[in-house]
Amino acid sequence: MQIPGIGKALPIVEGTDEKSLKQGVGHYSGTVYPGQNDQILLSGHRDTVFTGLDKLKHGDKLIVKMGHGTFTYAITDTEIVEENDQTVIHSTAPDEVLTLSTCYPFHYIGNAPKRYIVYAEPLGKH
Q1: Which of 10, 16, 89, 100 lies at a CB distance of 3.0 to 4.6 Å from 118, suitable for a disulfide?
Q2: Any idea what DSSP says for residue 123?
Q3: What average pLDDT is seen over the chain?
Q4: Going by DSSP bridges, is the β-strand pair 12-14/25-27 parallel, antiparallel, or unpaired?
Q5: Is 90 considered catalytic here?
Q6: Residues 87-120: pLDDT tens digits?
Q7: pLDDT, tens digit, 9 for 90 and up, residues 49-65
Q8: Is 103 an annotated catalytic residue?
Q9: Which structural domain range is residue 83 located in?
Q10: Of residues 90, 103, 107, 126, which has the active-site annotation?
Q11: Domain count, the chain
């Protein structure tokens, strides 16, 4: 995964457990992959892979490279939710939505009480 707005190039791993998130951005197993016209949820730690995520603006690009293609998304919205808010995980079919999730506040010490959510829509497959 590439996040040009903050100069990041990150590996995507399957799973969002603690071990997986130490290796990179985690793909939430209950969601689809790019190109499958539904929600893709990727999670990461705010103090490692997603440092600087709060600096991105609407329209900034997110690029996901998969074996079956490279997919570019543009950020359309952000929100802050409670840490156990599961409403951000839902089907978006037939629309594809890339959702990023990380802990919030960004400069909080310890287990953060909220989640920062980024929504992005496809610009196209290369």
Answers
A1: 100
A2: E
A3: 94
A4: parallel
A5: no
A6: 999 999 999 999 999 999 998 888 889 999 999 9
A7: 999 999 999 999 999 99
A8: yes
A9: 2-125
A10: 103
A11: 1
